[in-house]
Design brief:
By secondary structure, the chain is an all-alpha fold. The chain is built from three helices and no strands.
Amino acid sequence: MKKAPPPPGKILVSGAKLTRSRAEKISAVEGLRLSPKMAARFKTFDQQGLTPEERRAAIRAEFAKTR
């Protein structure tokens, strides 16, 4: 069965990238802000040219629970 077309005026966002600036705007609406420590960390990641995978690994390493 075919999907019905979206109602007039509805915007489809499939294929849109969730960039850092968009994520920050969404978070701001929800009342969430980066701590100064995390903002500095992301700035360092940018300066080092880390890939998204490397960024996630660095964040996981810092916040992972040790056994």
